[in-house]
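Subject: Protein entry, chain in single-letter code together with its fold tokens

Area: Proteins and the way their chains fold up in space.

Attached in line: The record itself begins immediately under this heading.
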Amino acid sequence: MSESQSAADRMKQHFSHRVIHQVRQIIDLWRQLPQRNWQKDALTELSLSVDKLIRYAGRFGATRHQQLGKDLLQLLMHIAPGECADNTQLQTINRIIQNLSQTALRHTDSPDATALIPQKKPIYIALQNTDQAVVLAEQMQYFSFRPELQRTPQDLVSSLQQRHPAAIVLDHNFGREGMGLEIAAQIQQQRETPLPVIFTWAGTPPSLKEQIQAQRSGSIAFMNETNVHALISKLETRLDCTPPQPQKVLVVDDSRTQSVHAQNILNKAGMITRVVNEPLQLLEVLHDFVPDIVLMDMYMPDCNGMELARIIRQQPEYFHLPIIYVSGEEDRDRQLAAMAEGGDDFLTKPVSPAHLVTTIRNRVDRARQLQQLIARDSLTGLLNHTHLQEALQQAISAADGQTPVSFAMIDIDHFKQVNDQYGHPVGDNVIRNLSLFLRQSLRKSDPIGRYGGEEFAVVLVDADLEQAAAVMDKIRKNFSCLTHDQQDLNITFSCGVSEWQGQSVSELIAEADKALYRAKDSGRNQVCTASSHK
């Protein structure tokens, strides 16, 4: 490589770092905006950060980042300081933020683009058992983490003075008995925002007293240090910076004044709202808006809230939809009677904004967790068979023939032999490890599912057949380097890929399945593309 090329590459890498850093900063500032009450300085800080992104993206040649930045800045300019965005603006801004969070690396990037993506903040590993720390660090690198070993308490304290990590994996007896807990407590005293700490143990599980001490020192988990991939899974979940989908609230109230007041409160909290002032329009709006929760008045003309709640509960798709009554009714017996008709909570007017927002957030969070349990495989946390097919259909519908969509089927090689030789618990660990590896290796916008047994499937959005095959082959090669269950056990998988070109979902899946079997018949540990692809 010539000197001029090296300089150009270094300049490109410099601006790539700045672009991705700005994206992360924008996501953080957007999350903080409702908590900062949409104050002028908070809105200005976000706008300046977006402006920087536009300039950096222009120099780097990141046209997609640049356009998303321009669209976002245009929207922010129309929000008056101290005023929150309206529903339309909130929906559009959240869509842009989601798109920005998925732009670190796309399937269409050149193969060497990964070299230009900056590494995340390091994760400090401070274990008393140095050999185990090395094993953990080696495995973490395959999951795109940046581990840094801290061999002594002095090394850890010194590193923390120089740079704060994304998280710490810390032996609670690092250095001597209980010293890890003491170090963590000192760290957290010096910080406004607690640093995530996973405490580890070896041999004897921690006592309840030790676990309480760990909680007070910022513990997000207390785990066996030999359970390497469970540790990695906990880190992956905790450090996922993908912004959550905004909560959607349907306000049913015949009073326009009351409903607008509630809408303003919820919009300011970053929630998307839809108002129904004519109760008889409820079912139509439910189907169109698909809310996370219904906020409903008790007494309205034509029908009351209890009657509407009963009708909602008769629809199977809304059986688990949270319903909160908001009414001036103070009679406790009538409140309980209303809740017995399908309501989940009852708030008596007047309700303070903080009480209303907190109640809705908690109810929606729990409802989403329940929905996740319904839609996801219990062993891996991935989409189950039915919901993956739904995700594939949604991806095809959204693409509308303008964006390529590919489908990959994966099967673990010689999995029966793994179960027979090492036992089913080890086999379960292999399945969990592959699911975690897929989540870490693919974009958050790519639905991943456990298709059944040792079979997995992935929907690759904005990837044609060649690009999808290259992505899956890279994952295949990296996964084969992992060791499983402290057995020095290496596992491979085979994969078949097909691309949607107007065929039905079942035909697309069948094509990928045929390609998978061709990969198995050809010796396994390889990726094959659909032969029927035209």
The chain is about 50% helix and 15% strand. Residues 3-35 form the longest helix (33 residues).
